[in-house]
Amino acid sequence: MGKRQRQRIEHERKKRRQGVILCLAVFSTICLALLAFKVIPFLSDEMALKREQAELLKLNPFSEEFLDINPDYVGWLKIDDTIIDFPVVRGSDNEKYLTTTFKGEENILGAIFMDYRCTEENQHIIIYGHQANDKDKNKLMFGGLTDFREEQYLTEHPVILFMENNLLSEYEIFSARLSDVNDPAYQLDFSEPDSFETFLEKIGSPTDAIKILTLSTCVGADNDRRMIVQGVFKRTVPITVEHDENGWKIIKED
Questions:
Q1: Which tens digit of pLDDT belongs to each residue from 213-246?
Q2: What is the residue-wise DSSP string for 133-186?
Q3: What letter does residue 96 receive in the DSSP assignment?
Q4: What is the CATH number of the domain that holds 60?
Q5: What is the pTM of this model?
Q6: In-domain check, residue 169
Q7: Do 171 and 232 contact (CB within 8 A), yes or no?
Q8: What are phi and psi for residue 121, nearest 5 degrees?
Q9: Count of CB atoms within 10 A of residue 241's CB?
Q10: Residue 139 within a domain
Q11: Between 184 and 166, where is the model more confident?
Q12: How many folded domains does the chain comprise?
């Protein structure tokens, strides 16, 4: 092989290497751009949501101020010593609050919302919320529901609280499970005879239950997967709220 031929071959190899490097650079740039397209809006929405929640926690949840902010407000959901501590809204469908906050801002994290078909008098109430983590891997919204799969955690946090009109309803958790959209937990029609009793049997509830509260969130990238936490109604007690510039706390009157 002559010198010129070797030089030509080496030159072609160098061009191929440069081409590969250029393709990798372009591909990396596109990937980073797509990642930024997804991550930057999420981080912005995350910060906006945290600011909103911090502001709401400083307000009296039973004041007219809450209804002035959002007429769809129906009550406050809380599980002591967890991140579950949110106002609950109910829209005219189950779509709006997937991407709208309590204050009406567009946000991919949405709000915590009650199924539009439910009222507080229903035998079964379903409340939905997104599952998400912030940039530091802290859980947001209904991300905390997956913690209830741990028996010890469930033992330490056994009661769901729902507050409305200066009344507090307590629901004792009896089930926390991974499931899907076909789970019987999503039944709301009990017009047929004995249908509520059949529903209780299917979800593993105490048979003497008169009312069920279900908390539901999507799990992972599969839109059909669900994390479900269910509680059985135990009692309703009147409450007052002590409120100052630092926030509020519940005072039971029983």
A1: 999 999 877 678 999 999 999 999 998 877 766 6
A2: E-TTS-EEEGGGGGGGGSHHHHHHS-EEEEEETTEEEEEEEEEEEEEETTSGGG
A3: G
A4: 2.40.260.10
A5: 0.81
A6: yes
A7: yes
A8: -90, -10
A9: 16
A10: yes
A11: 184
A12: 1
